[in-house]
């Protein structure tokens, strides 16, 4: 049975979708939900699902990324994960950290990468007049929102859409895409999932 750790910063809706998918004949189980914000709602939700939780508050480290990440690594290595999923984790990770978990760490990003790495992806798609938007699951490298693409889901941009309505439509797809990619990935199958 593969062991999966999930890193979150907020509500954790993607974490919940991943955790709910890892049941029955699924080849993996969640062993830790870890947040950089001790008050993240997702920690409560994970604990209510019976998943071990932990938090490493990034604020006391005052920008000392190496020290913050060393504390993350301590929590992660204690859980001995095979795979790490970044799910709405909003801290930028150094090459040292991404290198330590190379080829076993995934991230979900709310755009059709390589379009719109970074923030405000939905507003940027609207400002560009795109006909479609979506989300991407990729393997994490030292380059932000880059790395081999393991899955993408597309949604139409509809007349009258604003960033919130588009984000809500994309989020539904995120909850379908991330579990589908994870299931393949923990089985060693890197064939992209296209929804
Ligand atoms: C998601 O849209 C994800 O793609 C982005 O942050 C949002 C987090 O949502 N990185 P949640 O915390 O999983 O609900």
Keywords:
globular, binds 5-O-phosphono-beta-D-ribofuranosylamine, 6 helices, alpha/beta, 35% helix, 195 residues, eight-stranded mixed sheet
Describe the structure in your own words:
This protein has 195 residues and is of the alpha/beta class. 35% of the residues lie in helices and 23% in strands. It has an eight-stranded mixed beta sheet, with helices on both faces. The protein binds 5-O-phosphono-beta-D-ribofuranosylamine. Residues 8, 10-15, 87-88, 108-110, 135, 171, 174 line the site of 5-O-phosphono-beta-D-ribofuranosylamine.
Number of E-state strands: 8
- The run of helices and strands is EHEHEHEHEHEEHE
Query: Strand count, sense and closure of the main sheet?
Result: 8 strands, mixed
**How much helix, percentage-wise, in residues?**
25-40%
| Rg from Cα | 16 Å
Task: Describe the protein's topology.
Layout lengths: L1 E7 L4 H9 L6 E8 L5 H8 L4 E3 L9 H15 L3 E4 L8 H6 L4 E5 L11 H7 L4 E8 L9 E8 L6 H23 L7 E2 L1
Parallel strand pairs: 1-2, 1-4, 2-3, 4-5, 7-8
Antiparallel strand pairs: 5-6, 6-7
Helix pairs in contact: 1-6, 5-6
5-O-phosphono-beta-D-ribofuranosylamine (GRF) binds next to helix 1, strand 5 and helix 6.
Short summary of the structure?
The protein has 195 residues and is α/β, with parallel strands linked by helices.
């Amino acid at each position: 049975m593969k062991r999966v750790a999930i890193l979150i910063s907020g509500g954790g809706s993607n974490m919940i979708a991943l955790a709910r998918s890892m049941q029955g004949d699924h080849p993996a189980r969640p062993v830790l939900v870890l947040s950089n914000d001790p008050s993240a709602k997702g920690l409560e939700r994970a604990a209510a699902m019976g998943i071990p939780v932990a938090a490493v508050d990034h604020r006391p480290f005052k920008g000392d990324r190496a020290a913050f990440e060393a504390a993350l690594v301590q929590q992660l290595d204690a859980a001995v994960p095979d795979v790490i999923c970044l799910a709405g984790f909003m801290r930028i990770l150094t090459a040292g950290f991404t290198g330590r978990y190379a080829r076993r760490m995934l991230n979900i990003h709310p755009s059709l990468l390589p379009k719109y790495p970074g923030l405000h992806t939905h507003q940027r798609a609207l400002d560009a007049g795109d006909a479609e938007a979506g989300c991407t699951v990729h393997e994490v490298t030292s380059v932000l929102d880059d790395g081999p693409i393991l899955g993408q889901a597309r949604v139409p941009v509809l007349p009258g859409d604003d960033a919130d309505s588009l984000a809500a439509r994309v989020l539904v797809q995120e909850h379908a895409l991330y579990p589908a990619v994870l299931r393949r990935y923990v089985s060693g199958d890197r064939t992209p999932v296209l929804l």
